[in-house]
Amino acid sequence: MKYDVLIVGAGPAGLAAATRVAQGGAKVLVLEREQGAGGIPRHCLHQGFGLRDLHIARSGPRYAELRTALALEAGAELRTGADVTGWSDLRELEVTSAAGRERLAADAIVLATGCRERPRPARLIPGDRCAGVMTTGTLQQLVAAGRPVGSRAVVIGAEHVSYSALATLHHAGVSVAAMATELDRPQTFGAFRIGAAAAFGVRARTGTRLSAIEGDERVACVELTDSRGRATRVPCDTVVLTADWIPEGELAASGALESARATGGPAADGLGRTSRTGVFAAGNVMHGAEPADVAALEGRDIGGAVLDYLAARRWPAQRLPVAVRAPLRWASPTLYAPDASGRLLLRADARLLLALVAVRQGGRLLSLTRLARLAPGRAAMLAPGWGDGADPDGGPLTVEVAAARTRRQPASSNITSST
Q1: Which element (helix H / strand E) includes 279?
Q2: CA triplet 294, 300, 304: central angle to 5 degrees?
Q3: Are 252 and 85 in contact (CB under 8 A)?
Q4: What gap in Å lies between CA 117 and CA 133, rounded to an integer?
Q5: Which of 127, 165, 169, 373 maximizes the CB count within 10 A of its CB?
Q6: How far is residue 8's CA from residue 298's CA, in Å, rounded to a whole number?
Q7: What is residue 414's predicted lDDT score, i.e. its pLDDT?
Q8: In angstroms, rounded to a whole number, what is the distance separating the alpha carbons of residues 368 and 372?
Q9: Residues in the chain with pLDDT < 50?
Q10: Are 207 and 229 spatial neighbours (Cβ–Cβ below 8 Å)?
Q11: Counting Cβ atoms within 10 Å, is residue 195 exposed (0-12), middle (13-18) or buried (19+)?
């Protein structure tokens, strides 16, 4: 069967893209391997979803329902329980569902497969191999399904999703013995930290790593070690590993799409255009996790780019790679095109204040932006125009921190003037 657009993934980005494309009159089908649409939010029972995209505050399940309803009302078709297993042609997907195997073709394909947290083996955590160790996503799915997850937990991480895990544990009646992060402070909003301390009696132990897990059949306790090397054993039966995101890029890889080493997702420009003509990427498959409403806004914008492509069938012949230098971890988009110079998301490996971020091409300074803060667990943003003036034949763009300070250090600078 032939569609105008196939969208893989019915999370916030995929559903928002579907809504926009369907509103533009295109025939669109959304494929979702799970039995329900809405992505991660449908397992998150706490409030706060939809503020930036829908200008409301709802629980995760209610937000997922609203996003699904908007796509269907716009005219999009949705098929759940449909697993996309590979590509049979440039823009033809192999799909397996309860109805069997089939091939679906489209003029444009949008990959909105999202991301996941690294499991324990990928984090190289020492100790006993026992039950009771899980990611936030697993925790939320178990609680949403009414299944037991333990009685006393330790949460590793202190980012937005870590506080979501606290709320989920509280909903399930599980006490939290400790919350720990290797960073020097929690990477979330102050309101989340204050609210968690008031509602759950939990304050994050900063500068503290999970150094061992102990237990036979199930977790019995964990060892937490602070930056001075002092170890503390904390009895618990559940360990929740939060953050440390990996894009769900298997489908992109199997389609031989160019990947971005820094993010782990498919390389794409500001309009979501990948290395294959007619194939787009949207949302958290392009980078580590951003909140659901941010992913939805990205999906909406890329839906507009898909409509433009369907109308004109134009695809850039050449784009410039976007690289970062430490302490920046990644920038997204990872390709620069003059017609797609929207906002640039940045993540850093260190907490920096009053950071002066430079975008260069070779020895030439293209833009200089002062950001109030860069932090490991939260994205910062450069406004549109960050790459203006780039030479199409001038080579990659490099994003770097030209000057910044920590709480204990004055600003330092390595700025050189533009020529």
Answers
A1: strand 279-281
A2: 145
A3: no
A4: 13
A5: 165
A6: 15
A7: 47
A8: 13
A9: 410-419
A10: no
A11: middle
User: Which residue type, as a one-letter code, is found at position 343?
Assistant: R
| CA pair distance 58, 62, nearest whole angstrom | 6
d(CA 187, CA 175): 22
Beta carbons within 10 angstroms of residue 77's beta carbon: 15
Helix (H) or strand (E) holding 83: strand 83-89
All structural domains of the chain: 2-116+245-315 (3.50.50.60), 119-241 (3.50.50.60), 323-413 (2.60.40)
Instruction: Classify each residue of 95-104 as buried b or exposed e, where b means 16 or more C-beta atoms within 10 Å of its C-beta.
Output: beeeeeeeeb
Task: Please write the tens of the pLDDT for every residue from 351-398.
Answer: 899 999 999 999 899 999 999 999 888 889 999 999 999 999 999 999
Separation CA 150–CA 176 (nearest Å): 11
> Could you give phi then psi for residue 300, rounded to 5 degrees?
-60, -45
Query: Are residues 70 and 15 in contact, defined by beta-carbon separation less than 8 angstroms?
Result: yes
Q: How many angstroms separate the CA atoms of 227 and 347, rounded?
A: 23
Identify the three-state secondary structure at position 70. Answer: helix
**Dihedral, 323, 327, 330, 336 alpha carbons, nearest 10:** -30
* pLDDT reported for residue 375: 87
